[in-house]
Amino acid sequence: MQEYKMPYREQNSNKGTFGKVLNFCGSGNYIGAAYLASKSSLKVGAGYSALATEQRIIDSISGTLPEVVYLSPRQGLNQINDFTTVLLGCGIGTSRKSYRLVNTVIDKTPAQTPMVIDADGLNLLAKMNKPLKKENLIITPHPIEAARLLKVSAQDVLTDLETAAKTLSEKYGCITVLKSHNTVICSKTQTFINKHGNSALAKAGSGDVLAGIIAGLLAQKMQPYEAAVLGTYLHSRAGEIASEDLSEYSVLANDLINYLPKAIKEVL
C-alpha cells in the first residue's frame, strides 16, 4: 500500500524556507488557468508563488489573488535563477509568441531546478525537435497531449496507458503523470497507478490545479517522483471529499483548491 507523506514543516522558518514557484501561465482566453495554478502551489504549502504573464491577466486576477507576486514574462525570465521550481504551460495558448516563450523558459531554467510542464506547454513541446533530458522534469499530459508528444493516435495511448507513460519518461528523461481515470505516474524505473478520484475531476481547470499542487510540493524539496505521486493523490482525494458535499456534478476546479486542506489533513 502506498504511504503518502507531506513535506516536513520547519517551525523556525520564513517564506523562503518552503520554496518559490515561478508560474509561466495564462493567456487571453485562459485567464483562469493562471489563477488556479498559481493559487494551488501556495495552498499545498509553497512559501511564495509568482505569476509571470500578460498585464491584462494581472489586471484581471490580482484583486482576487493578492497572495501571488506578479511579473511580466520578461521579468520572470530575468529572475528565473531565484526560484525553486518553474511551472510552465497552463493556459498559455499555442501562438508563435507562446512557442517562443516555452522554448526560452526551457533553455533558461537551470538544469537542477525542478520544472513542471503542463497543457499548452506540452502541445508546443510536441512541435519542437527538442531533446530535453532535463533533471527534475515532470510532464502532466492527458491522453491527447501524450499522443501528440509520442506522434501516435490517442487510441494508441488509451489502449495502453502504462506503456505510453513509460515511453514518454524514456523519451524526455522525465517523470510522467499521464492523466486518466486511473492516472499513471512513472519514472524510468518506477511506476505507480493512482486509483482515487471520480468524475468530478473531469472539469475545466482541474489539470491546472494538479500542476500547481505538484509544483508546490517540488518547491518544498520533495523528490520529483514522490511529488508527482503525492500531488496526484491529494488532487484526486480533494475531488472525492468535495463530491461528498457538492456532488460529482457540481465540483469546480476552485473547489478542489478549497478542499485540498482536508485531503492534506488526512495524510497528516
Task: Report what the structure shows.
With 268 residues, the chain is α/β, with parallel strands linked by helices. The chain has a single domain, classed as UDP-N-acetylmuramoyl-L-alanine:D-glutamate ligase (3-Layer(aba) Sandwich). It has helices at 31-43, 55-61, 73-78, 96-108, 120-125, 143-150, 154-159, 161-172, 206-219, 224-246, 253-267, and strands at 20-24, 48-52, 69-71, 85-88, 115-118, 137-140, 175-178, 183-186, 191-194. The protein has a nine-stranded mixed β-sheet, with helices on both faces. The chain is globular and about 45 Å long.
Question: Short description, anyone?
Answer:
46% of the residues lie in helices and 14% in strands. It has helices spanning 31-43, 55-61, 73-78, 96-108, 120-125, 143-150, 154-159, 161-172, 206-219, 224-246, 253-267, and strands at residues 20-24, 48-52, 69-71, 85-88, 115-118, 137-140, 175-178, 183-186, 191-194.
Structural class: alpha/beta
CATH homologous superfamily placement: Ribokinase
For the record, what CATH class applies? Alpha Beta
Mean pLDDT value: 96
Strand order of the largest sheet: 3-2-1-4-5-6-7-8-9
Question: How far apart are the first and last residues' alpha carbons, in Å?
Answer: 16 Å
Number of strands: 9
What is the general shape? Answer: globular
Oligomer: single chain
What is the radius of gyration? Answer: 17 Å
Helix content: 40-55%
Main sheet record: 9 strands, mixed
**What is the helix tally?**
11
| Uncertain segments | none
In the CATH hierarchy, the architecture is 3-Layer(aba) Sandwich
